[in-house]
Design a protein that fits this description.
This protein has helices spanning 46-63, 99-105, 134-139, 145-168, 212-215, 221-231, and strands spanning 3-9, 13-18, 23-28, 31-34, 39-42, 70-75, 78-82, 85-96, 112-122, 131-132, 171-183, 186-189, 198-202. Strand 9 and strand 10 form a beta hairpin. The protein has six helices and 13 strands. The chain folds into two domains: 3-82, 2-Layer Sandwich (Phosphorylase Kinase, domain 1); 85-220, ATP-grasp fold, B domain (D-amino Acid Aminotransferase, Chain A, domain 1), CATH 3.30.470. The structure holds cytidine-5'-diphosphate. It is an enzyme of class 6 (ligase). One of its GO terms (molecular function) is phosphoribosylaminoimidazolesuccinocarboxamide synthase activity.
Length: 237
């Protein structure tokens, strides 16, 4: 497999074509962004840490029967993925109240959400990823009702697998965001799973171990990501 020209550069990853029309290369950069890209910083080792973390999690999800776009790791900072037609809708599950939910609804940060909530957001930085619903997604053609139902099922399956995985490492999976795409007619998990796109707290102290450390200027961002990885059995070399 040969890496070809760049297709797209996102806020933290760049995407490359390959000689296989069904495969892309994802390059995890050290760039870290927050607030819809208004704040960007380079954090040493982040690309390697998130690429390694993502490969490990995608492997766990795949083993649990959840279809993902992940194919193989290519280098420290790159992996090969299936080329999907991305659905521009972000799926968020919350087990514990934090972030946007606390701001929007005034609930107390840290309260347990039972049952866990499921929210949809439109992937659009210029509009600050507005919250949407199934009706809007259908009307505007972002996703069909069937696709949304499948995305919801898969997003909760991911919760079952990862809540347990992180709890076994002494951490709470507070919330997370997933993106999906279509590959040969099937809904498949795309993008990445890393501490950039979820919230993880130490189960005892409730210390933040995810991107909120960057958003809130708490420092020790990559050290926390590596600690999360170590606790679930990842060797960063
Ligand atoms: O992160 P923020 O407070 O802006 O929004 P949220 O709705 O509380 O985010 C819920 C979860 O989805 C968090 O784990 C975020 O890190 C993640 N998220 C993301 O990765 N990308 C987005 N564009 C929005 C949320």
């Amino acid at each position: 497999m040969e890496k070809r020209e760049a297709l797209y550069a996102g806020k933290a990853k760049s995407v490359y074509l390959t000689d296989d029309p069904d495969r892309l290369v994802l390059h995890f950069r050290d760039d870290t962004s927050a607030f819809d890209g208004q704040r960007v910083e380079s954090l040493a080792r982040k690309g390697m840490v998130n690429n390694t973390f993502n490969a490990f999690i995608m492997g766990k999800l795949q083993a649990a029967g959840i279809p993902t776009h992940f194919d193989s790791q290519l280098s420290d900072t790159e992996c090969v993925v299936k080329r999907l037609d991305m659905i521009p809708v972000e799926c968020v599950v919350r087990n514990i109240a934090a972030g946007g939910l606390v701001k929007r609804l005034g609930v107390e940060e840290g309260s347990e959400l039972n049952p866990p909530t499921f929210e949809l957001f439109l992937k659009n930085d210029a509009l600050h990823d507005p919250m949407i619903n199934e009706s809007l997604a259908e009307t505007f053609g972002w996703a069909t009702p069937e696709q949304l139902a499948r995305m919801k099922t898969l997003t909760f399956q991911v919760n079952d697998v990862l809540k347990r995985l992180f709890l076994d490492g002494g951490m709470l999976l507070v919330d997370y965001k997933l993106e999906f795409g279509v590959f040969k007619g099937e809904i498949v998990l795309g993008d990445e799973f890393s501490p950039d796109g979820c919230r993880l707290w130490d189960a005892k102290t409730r210390e933040k171990m995810d991107k909120d450390r960057f958003r809130q200027g708490l420092g020790g961002v990559i050290e926390a990501y590596e600690e999360v990885g170590r606790r679930i059995g990842i060797d960063f070399g």
